[in-house]
Request: fold
Amino acid sequence: MKSAIVLGAGMVGVATALHLQQRGWAIVLLDRKVPGRETSHGNAGIIQSEALRPYPMSHDWRELAKIATGHTNDVRYHIAALPHHLGPLLCYWWHSFPARHAGASAAYAQIIGCATCEHEGFIQHTEAGNLIRRDGFRILYRDQSALEAAIAAAELLRRAYDVKSSVMTSWDLRQAEPSLADGGVGGLHWLEPWTVSDPGALVSAYADLFTRLGGNIVRGDAKSLSGSGNPGWSVMTEDGRIEAEKAIIALGPWSPDLLRRFGYRFPMVRKRGYHRHYAGGSRLDLPLYDAANGYVLAPMAKGVRITTGAEFAAPQGKPDLTQLEYAEQAAYRLLDLGQPVEPEPGFGTRPCMPDMLPVIGAAPRHRGLWLHFGHGHQGFTLGPTTGRLIAEMMNNESPMVDPYPYRPERY
Reply:
């Protein structure tokens, strides 16, 4: 029986473990925490089937000036932290030029288009169906030109991929969400994405399926990974050292740090985001993105969750709640949130590659080592899809999509 150790028990790692298990592999899933407690837990809970084009960096000098001067809440940064981010950000900016972004989008659409189908393949074998809604999410706009640009972009997606959306007037938004104090100038309803009332619970449900089918989840330190020859890989766990033929690094933003030990240099744009729940206030039906203020309000099992945009902080920098506080003030003007549930907000880091595509494939110089990370904002959406892709590659099957754009060798 083929064997592998999957390092990282977020959505990406758990999905990888499940797909390999379904192909008859003996799999050990290793993490320092229980599954789904890092970035996979603190997101907006949207399986974004409409996100067929990755997020480019703006080349509009006015937008860049807003970021530089702190006049937007979408992006925040710390000057002292910029040396950690400058190289990858410049590369990201270069790949955001229209021609390069179009190439990335063509590859990205191939995997995003499979997202809900691959999630469904797992959900039907769990009891997680009650966590899922299939009614999409909404975006509120406060500027007419921004709304018109969004409508035009949605029309392009409709023509290219038959993505369904609906334009909403300010009155429409207020009717759909009666608790809103303001409907802006209108909005857009993406009709087909799925929303999840507890993202961490969905990852846990997939992990429970893995163990129910005979998989083994262990606590351990991924830093202990070493080649054991023949070929083979080993790692230290709480119960001692374990070995397997293959190892898959699915550690999200921590993947490049581990891979430096093996001589690999992967530039990564690490975007920190904050989240917090609020309870006792008004009801919200579907997730709502406040485009002008850079945050999402999402109804969750614990209450309404705020998730923020991107913060560029030092790798081990202390939390800076400026972005969340700004979002919270804007949200209170929009909706009666009630009171915070947690004494302190949570945060996670989105692992974005400079060319906006995940890294999926065999390590170029180490036999039996496989790489699966860099999903940016969409690890929660894409985990089951790219988990299937890497499992097919490892099992010498015909891959579901062309894996070439995601190859590690491009770095």
About this structure: The domain at 3-42+200-266+355-410 is CATH 3.50.50.60 (FAD/NAD(P)-binding domain). The CA atoms of residues 229 and 268 lie 30 Å apart. The chain has eleven helices and 23 strands.
